[in-house]
Design brief:
With about 240 residues, this protein is α/β, with parallel strands linked by helices. It has one domain: Glycoside hydrolase/deacetylase (TIM Barrel), CATH 3.20.20. It contains eight helices and eight strands, in the order αβαβααβαβαββαβαβ. The protein binds zinc ion (ZN).
Length: about 240
Amino acid sequence: MDRICITTGLAAVCTAVLCYGLIPSEGLKYLWKRKSRKRVKEGSGDRRLFLTFDDGPSRAYTGQLLCLLKQYQIKASFFVVAEFARENPDLIEWMKEEGHLVGIHSVRHRNALFKGRRFVCEDLRESVETLEDMGVKIRYYRPPWGHLNLWTLFFIRKWNLKLILWDVMANDWSARETAESIREKILSRVFPGAVLCLHDGRGAVRAPERTIEALKESLPVLIEQGYSFERMDAYEY
Ligand SMILES: [Zn+2]
């Protein structure tokens, strides 16, 4: 009898954990990618790409990236960590001046997967307020690692935020990747209408430097292939 109770209890806990964070996170990633594949299959995706950058701004790299994007007149979307934004208000101002879209990516890049209501509410509220104090109207949110839970869904709906995930990663945060391997991943994985997720902060030592080097090589190739670049507010959901 005791064994049955313990088994039942464990099953209930596992189900609750799955339903609270894992299923919403993984389910939404699956649905996002399925929608993108469907669009490509139907041939409705034109040759637009959506360049997005997470985990900045960083003093060492974001300026270099902004200069590179300006060189090709590319508008991108930056999902910034609020505490890094507070440390680098001039970089946020620079993004705005260049016409990039700024969204939020948490206050301190903590994982929200199993966090409670209070954490989720405060993390979103502080992120939005930090950026809005810098004159950025916030409408877009990308959770760190794409991890969220039922409270995240509740609050983004309540505050009318749009959840942004991605189609293509190049593992550019990893110490195992080189500029060359990131370039190869970008070029081999993109498809019309894809949302690319890259990083201008955090990650392995000098990781964003490799990202920027990879972009220097891959952007002219993508343009040559007929791709154009848009901000996430031009993305059709
Ligand atoms: Zn991140």
